[in-house]
Amino acid sequence: MNPRSYHYSKGFSLVEILVSVAVFSVVVIAGTAAILAVIDANQKSQSLNSVMTNLNVALESMAREIRVGKNYACVTGHGIESDCTMISFTPDIGVGPIYYEFVSTGIQKRVGSDTATPLRMTATEVNLTDVHFKIRKSTDGTFQDKVFLTISGYAQAKIQTKTNFYIQTLMSKRDIIPAS
Predict the structure, then answer these.
(1) What residues contact 16, with CB distance under 8 A and at least 6 apart?
(2) CB 139 within 8 A of CB 79
(3) Cα torsion for 55, 58, 61, 63, to the nearest 10°?
(4) Are 86 and 98 in contact (CB under 8 A)?
(5) Could you give the CA distance from residue 35 to residue 16 in angstroms, rounded to a whole number?
(6) Comparing 6 with 152, which gets the higher pLDDT?
(7) What is the DSSP-derived secondary structure letter of residue 174?
(8) Does residue 133 contact residue 87 with C-beta atoms inside 8 Å?
(9) Which class for 151: exposed (0-12), middle (13-18), buried (19 or more C-beta within 10 A)?
């Protein structure tokens, strides 16, 4: 037997174990940070989606009522083509006039009179900065009356999440033809 034979041990040295634990820790911390960032982004996205869905429902409700209404009038404007922040019209079906008004950071609806109890149409997370109704009436009956609505503002579900938007929509009068 060789007096200088090498004795190989089985297993890892302390330095190898420390290096592998350090590398593993760095990978786990980086992965955890990435997962937390994705979860936070998902929560922000869901909050913003909820806010924008509320705005969409409010606008669709307004558009539906305006389309079947008549006698459009700008409460704050004058003339055939008026630009205003408050509109009134008479619904084809229902009682009394309907008023939509831009107040502070949202749109309010009043039914019956302009002093009736207001109903806020938009969520408090939707902050409108500018709302304009533009009415174009047909003086000779060559086209249907139209209401052009422009809205700008921002949606903020959380302090860190602020999304600006600008929306335009055109609503033309739709006459309801009774069944004969």
Answers:
(1) none
(2) no
(3) -60
(4) no
(5) 29
(6) 152
(7) -
(8) yes
(9) buried
pLDDT 10s digits, 118-140? 889 888 888 899 988 998 887 77
Helix, strand, or coil (residue 163): strand
Q: Among all chains, which residue has been given the structure tokens 């929306």?
A: 167
At residue 111, the 3 state secondary structure works out as: strand
155 pLDDT higher than 70: yes
Find out whether 54 and 122 touch, Cβ atoms under 8 Å. yes
> What 3-state DSSP class applies to 74?
strand
Token digits for 129?
């900065």
Q: Which residues contact 109 (CB under 8 A, 6 or more apart)?
A: 62, 98, 99, 100, 118, 119, 121
The pair of three-digit structure tokens given for residue 157, joined into one six-digit string? 């579900």
Please tell me the least confidently modeled range out of 98-102, 103-107, 129-133, 158-162: 158-162
**DSSP class per residue in 135-155:** EE--SSSSS--EEEEEEEEEE
Residues written for the chain: 180
Residue 24: pLDDT band with limits 50, 70, 90:
very high
Q: Is the pLDDT of residue 81 over 60?
A: no
Residue 58: CB partners within 8 Å, gap ≥ 6? 107, 121, 122
Tokens 């997370």 locate to 125
- Tell me the pairing of strands 86-91 and 161-172: unpaired
